[in-house]
Amino acid sequence: MNEQLKALYKTVILEHNARPFHFEKKEDAGHVLEAYNPLCGDRFQVFLEVKNGVVTEACFHGYGCAISKASTSVLVKNLENQPVEKAQELCRSFLKMTNPDSQEPVEMAEEFMAFSATRDFPGRLKCATLSWEEMTLFLEKQTVENEN
Amino acid sequence: MFDPVKIRSEFPIFSHHPELIYLDNAATTQKPEAVIRATSDFYQKENANIHRGIYELAANASQKYEQVRRTVASFIGAERPESIVYTSGTTEGINLVAQSFLAGRLQPGDEVVISAMEHHANLIPWQQVCKMQGAKLRVIPVSEAGEIDLAVFKKMLSERTKMVALVHVSNTLGTINPVEEMIEMAHSRDIPVLLDGAQSVAHYPLDVQALDVDFFVFSGHKIFGPTGTGILYGKPEHLENMEPVTFGGDMINSVSFETTTFAAVPQRFEAGTTNIAGVIGLGAAIDFLMKFDKNDILAHLKNLTETATDALRQIDGLKIIGTAQNKSAIVSFTLGNVHPHDVATFLGSENIAVRAGNHCTQPLMDFYGLPGTTRASFSIYNTAEEALRLAEALKDIQRFFA
Ligand SMILES: Cc1ncc(COP(=O)(O)O)c(C=O)c1O
After folding, report:
1. Which of A33, B19, B173, B198 is the most exposed place for a label (fewest CB within 10 A)?
2. Per-domain boundaries in chain B
3. What is the DSSP letter of A105?
């Protein structure tokens, strides 16, 4: 089997795919985001509570490939108890790290770096970034609402 | 003798990618040298716009372009070349029939019947016309195996039914529908039938007159021809009574600022400069296909499908989706909990090209409760060895994800 591909799926992705973090529905959550890719049908809902500018709870549910599921799982896991600004920073770094057009080196923890290999698989890049992009939009709205 | 390895050598893509195991033929087929050469020769030596010029190049281009109409007509058994309308593909052909033929005939409360296994291209055009006219879209259910129950179909037809639109061979399940019987049933109630032949025309002996089908549509790119080409066949009495839906140059008789009279069939449906080089290429593709005996093609594909199906059945957790009695060379499956896109990515890294997803049949996937499948679809240049390689690669993937 292709070594590069195995590297992409390495333990982080397989592990999160098999045992995703807080994989449950919470219909009455304060905020429900939908990350949907009509091209492939991947669809995840992320349920969030935000109190005083801090993400206090996060869980997710839905269906998608191993990469999109694992990347959403990693996102959700790292959001909990983060202030919105910190969460925004995290999303920015992640999207920069996975962006094949970005030359800037980004150092992140191994858990995130696992997804950098999607740069070599252009067809799968969106799987890694789907939920992160949706989250970026949501967090932006949060900060705007806070300022108003 | 039918020799897939020799046929493969006529397709330049395989000299550029010798390792490629191309099992995505339901999406589009590869192009033989003869088709590529016909299009490039046209641009290099023969290019001119048709119908308008009176110089020699233009006259020759027009003549070649119209010659392809005769080739297509004889390929599918049409009564005359005027029954052949050039389109950009299956999708355009269906939209043209929905808007030009059907829309004006539909009254509120009327019905259009399609099947649950339609490609979006043979669903949305009807759905939208129904919505516009206050008519109802009715859907023939499919069984777990992916078959249509003729008795159910028959019951669905009534005096309210104004059209039946049906896929000949399902691009997702491979089911070959009993179109002969279905056309007869519809006609016994004077209901016109459109067949979506996108997946059937490359392999199945086809005679639109024997079928007595009202409309038959297909795409050039799925029968070894160029993208952006397609054919709409219509019975002469239908085409003659249809108004164009796209207006412009090359489709008129005379024009004033107040009024226009339209050209005869089929030109009235071919507004503007069409895909001339593509049509020339499509002619070359049909010439290429007609070199083979379709029975040989069918026997080869049946053998491949059986080899693949048998090998895939041995794999733990693999489930074949679409197990109709009468099936073409399309094998859709799920592999345990491994998502189809992960399967396709791993197969891709082994140079095996397959498709994963809903295959533009989302309602059908919903019926099976699946987000998608992985699909291997075979053509004349595939070999049994490739089918077995697919099965081996799938076993590796299953182990990796276990
Ligand atoms: C059964 C069927 N109908 C319609 C289409 C649409 O064909 P095209 O995209 O060439 O118009 C396809 C191709 O994917 C198909 O398989």
Report:
1. B19
2. 4-30+293-401, 35-289
3. -
